[in-house]
Design goal:
Layout: E1 3-5, E2 9-14, E3 21-27, E4 35-39, E5 48-50, E6 56-57, E7 64-66, E8 72-74, H1 77-85, E9 91-95, H2 108-117, E10 119-121, E11 127-131, E12 135-138, E13 143-147, E14 153-160, E15 168-174, H3 179-184, E16 190-192, H4 193-201, E17 214-217, E18 220-221, H5 232-245, E19 252-259, H6 263-274, E20 280-284, H7 287-290
Parallel strand pairs: 4-9, 11-19, 14-19, 16-17
Antiparallel strand pairs: 1-10, 2-3, 3-9, 4-5, 6-7, 7-8, 11-20, 12-13, 13-19, 14-15, 17-18
Cofactor: Zn(2+)
Protein name: UDP-3-O-acyl-N-acetylglucosamine deacetylase
Keywords: Acyltransferase, Hydrolase, Lipid A biosynthesis, Lipid biosynthesis, Lipid metabolism, Metal-binding, Transferase, Zinc
């Protein structure tokens, strides 16, 4: 059945790029509602922004959605990944500004809050997007692909950075049940020190600290405490990809591969999917398939202790 959060939960922090205080509240919603953001600081006009692939603006450093009047919410990928990874299909997310709080740089605080409140079933069947044929997008930086899978969502991701602290990393996961919560949710956003300096010159990353991002310089990890996982970087890229794929509006059944992919490539991939005749079909999920979806049967105890 479709689900929502059992009761509202709030999070406070600062925006990664704006550096401004932010308060976000995940609220229950009815069946067929989907996921919407509401800008509570907007008093006049349309304050509602749909968390949907066709409302996304292409930005390389985060995922930003925008409504027809230009009202936007940015850096939504971690909370979207948490909703998808916990199996939440419907939610109203109230936020008092234009950027989601970065918290610790991962999705773990959102996951912890969602599972503490609990998941409530609704009186409506889950629809899923079944991939029927391969779709792929490429840029000079990398490529991303969706193709038919084995009845759930599986993911491969490959990254390659010059800094030896990251280097080349590959990971493959079957996202069934609590895989996201156990394997990915605590992995933090990461960047090179040189990138931090460049972003701040452009007025970005003003809320970034060593406590909410993994910062590397060559073969050194500068953030106190080091890495949560040896391959934390590729795990975080998979976390981002799950959050960006959640903008499809329904769980995806298929296999996703990202090679040096980011937010823009994953969104371009969804646009290619929905614009390619015969590439997918919407279908009601069977009980057997429902048990393979991300978040099915997940429990609070599965959240990694490191987060």
């Amino acid at each position: 059945m479709q689900t929502t959060i059992r009761s509202a939960i709030s999070f406070t922090g600062v925006g990664l790029h704006s550096g401004k205080p932010a308060r976000l509240t995940i609220c229950p919603a009815s069946a067929e509602y989907g996921v919407w953001f509401k800008r509570t600081d907007i008093a006049v006009g349309d304050a509602m922004v749909p968390a949907r692939w066709d409302a996304t603006e292409h930005t390389p450093l985060c995922t930003r959605i925008c409504n027809r009047l230009g009202v936007s919410v940015s850096t939504i990928e971690h909370v979207m990944a948490a909703l998808a990874g916990c199996g939440i299909h419907n939610a109203l997310i109230e936020i008092d500004g234009p950027e989601v709080p970065i918290l610790d740089g991962s999705a773990a605080p959102f996951v912890r809050g969602i599972l503490a409140r609990g998941v409530r079933e609704l009186n409506a069947d889950v629809r899923v997007i079944e991939i029927l044929k391969k779709v792929e997008v490429k840029t000079d930086q990398g490529w991303a692909r969706l193709e038919p899978g084995s009845g759930g969502l599986t993911m491969d991701f490959h990254i390659n950075f010059a800094d030896r602290a990251i280097g080349t990393q590959n990971k493959s996961l079957d996202m069934r049940n609590g895989t996201f919560v156990r394997e990915l949710c605590d992995s933090r956003t990461f960047c090179r020190q040189a990138d931090v300096d460049a972003m701040r010159e452009k007025g970005l990353a003003l809320g970034g600290t060593m406590d909410n991002a993994v910062v590397v310089d060559g073969d050194r990890v500068l953030s106190p405490g080091g890495l949560r996982h040896k391959d934390e970087a590729v795990r975080h890229k998979m976390l981002d990809a799950l959050g960006d794929l959640a903008l499809a509006g329904a769980p995806i059944l298929g296999h996703y591969t990202g090679h040096k992919a980011g937010h823009t490539l994953t969104n371009l991939l969804l646009r290619e999917l929905f614009n390619t005749p015969g590439a997918y079909r919407m279908t009601l999920v069977s009980q057997e398939t429902a048990a393979r979806l991300p978040g099915a049967g997940v429990e609070r105890a599965e959240i990694p202790a490191v987060a």
